[in-house]
Design goal:
By secondary structure, the protein is of the alpha+beta class. The protein contains 14 helices and 15 strands. The chain is about 40% helix and about 20% strand. A hairpin with an 8-residue loop joins β6 and β7.
Length: about 425
């Protein structure tokens, strides 16, 4: 150590070194003293000629056990903004997400030693206006907080395999359709978060099984965590069948839907993993009724009441005597316009396949007929087309309507 001590004395005897060091520490002291009041600053830590910094945080950061640091990096002679965890455990938890931040892209691995984010603000020799530096610091801190609120607060509890693919990507939440799942839409992906049940797992398995048989989204990841299923898929190609463009062309839309039904009926059901015949469907309906899981707010006006059934139990008893033979094919299970995507005049993607399987043709015909009726009556948008008759679907299919089956499958769906 003797040689090191001698070198240390020589450095201290250099007047310019001490003067420069005092200048830098005074700079950090002034920055701390003049820091905007929306943040509470902590003690200035001088460090060991490596980093001199002071922490700052607000209530939002404190609740998340996070804090910023305004840092003087002595080796690089630059001012940096750091985002830090309260302790190593907090740091590890947040790093699982922040490693995918745009601020950490193109950074050398492994992860930073001290901070979740280390962002250069300004080189010391570029610092001419300290107030401007503080404004830059607060603006950047505010941007990072917005990312925390928008991404981390919403996504940090997701499985790590999902986080790694969606972190810090712009997104929106899809409100279209009747699904109880949460649908998060990214530029080229969709994340569906559902209760962990048979329907959610079936959708995943059907997407895998239907690959190369029908146009369905490619599965990018599937994880189950805390009674939730996370299904990450490629974004469906094309436009929803209920988009304005197609709604202005009812005849063309009906023909495309009929062609899509026929395309589904061509799927070989020999090895289909899920039968969804009346036996399974009525068993599920019985469970719905016994546990009062039906939604009476979304049934047809005439289903119950004076001219309909007394209650869901009475409807179930009627359904138990169908009075027809099943014509089994591959069925989507919920063949409604928001679940059908069209491109270049043909089916381009099917989504929401949680009820897919082997079923009678009218499972899909009936729900498609009802969806056409609702969409063209203005139920969802207020814009109606009184000249359109959903019976045109049967003309496009080239079949005579089976009125009993049509009524039966629409009524059966009322219990789901």
């Amino acid at each position: 150590m003797k040689k090191q001590f001698e070198d240390y004395i020589k450095i201290l005897e250099t007047h310019k070194f001490q003067e420069t060091y005092r200048h830098l520490i005074r700079l950090m002291t002034r920055l701390k003293a003049n820091f905007p009041q929306e943040y509470l600053t902590g003690q200035l830590s001088l460090g060991y000629l490596d980093y001199t910094y002071f922490p700052f945080q607000n209530t939002y950061l404190k609740e998340r056990q996070l804090r910023f640091g305004l840092v003087l990096n002595h080796r690089k002679l630059q001012i940096e903004l750091w985002l830090m965890g309260r302790n190593h455990q907090v740091y590890q938890r947040y790093w699982q997400f922040f490693q995918y931040s745009t601020y950490n892209q193109n950074k050398p691995k492994p992860k930073p030693q001290y901070a979740l984010l280390e962002v250069k603000l300004m080189a010391i020799d570029e610092l001419l206006d300290e107030q401007k530096l503080l404004q830059m610091t607060v603006a950047l801190a505010s941007d990072i907080e917005k990312q925390l609120a928008l991404y981390v607060d919403n996504f940090m509890t997701f499985p790590l395999a999902i986080q790694s693919k969606i972190a810090f990507r712009p997104y929106s939440v899809d409100e279209i359709g009747m699904s109880k799942a949460k649908i998060i839409v990214f530029e080229d992906m969709v994340l569906k978060i559902s209760q962990d049940d048979q329907e959610a797992r079936r959708e995943y398995e059907m997407l895998i099984w239907l690959k190369d048989q029908l146009p369905v989204p490619k599965v990018l990841a599937f994880e189950v965590q805390d009674d939730r299923c996370y299904l990450l898929m490629e974004k469906a190609k094309g436009k929803m069948a209920c988009c304005d463009e197609l709604m202005r062309q009812p005849k063309r839309l009906t023909q495309i839907l009929a062609a899509s039904l026929k395309q589904m009926w061509q799927v070989d059901i020999t090895n289909c993993p899920y039968p969804h015949t009346l036996k399974e469907h009525l068993a599920a309906a019985t469970y719905q009724v016994e546990n009062q899981l039906y939604d009476l707010d979304n049934v047809e006006p005439e289903t119950f009441g004076e001219n309909g059934f007394e209650n869901p139990k009475a409807l179930l008893e009627w359904l138990k005597v169908p009075g027809f033979e099943e014509d089994l094919v591959f069925s989507h299970g919920d063949f409604c316009l928001p679940n059908i995507f069209i491109q270049d005049g043909k089916l381009s993607s099917l989504i929401d396949l949680g009820r897919a399987g082997i079923a009678d043709k009218y499972q899909d015909i009936a729900l498609c007929y009802r969806s056409l009726s609702h969409n063209f009556s203005g139920k969802y948008t207020g814009a109606s087309n009184p000249d359109f008759d959903a019976m045109a679907l049967f003309e496009a299919l080239g079949i005579e309507p089976d009125v009993r089956k049509l009524k039966y499958y629409i009524l059966l769906d009322e219990l789901f």
